[in-house]
Recover the amino acids of this structure.
């Protein structure tokens, strides 16, 4: 796999989940992952894609750290901060 391939977007809808459950942004119902909220029927597909992108990006971040590739780790850390700033800010702010 070339460096460029590593940063090509995979199909995030089929990626593993970062979070075990999702909270509906409309009504707050906590539920297992699904494309539509069980309570209010809000479309959750975008939320699901973002969660998948977080899982993939976090995995790539740890892989870059493991091989001491700080250049790509920093790019991935910035992406994680964009995707979930409240979750990763304290961990990655000094990276
Ligand atoms: Zn809902």
């Amino acid at each position: 796999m070339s460096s460029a391939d590593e940063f090509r977007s995979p199909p995030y809808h089929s990626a593993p989940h970062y979070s075990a459950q999702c909270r509906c942004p409309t009504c707050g119902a906590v539920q297992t992952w699904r494309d539509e909220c069980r309570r209010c029927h809000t479309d959750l597909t975008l939320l699901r894609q973002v969660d998948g992108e977080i899982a993939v990006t976090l995995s790539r971040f740890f892989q870059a750290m493991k091989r001491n590739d700080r250049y790509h780790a920093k790019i991935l850390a910035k992406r994680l901060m964009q995707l979930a700033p409240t979750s990763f800010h304290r961990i990655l702010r000094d990276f």
Remarks:
- DSSP finds four helices and two strands in the chain.
- The longest helix spans residues 45-66.
- Residues 24, 26-27, 29, 37, 39-40, 42 surround zinc ion (CB under 6 Å).
- The chain has one domain: 16-92.
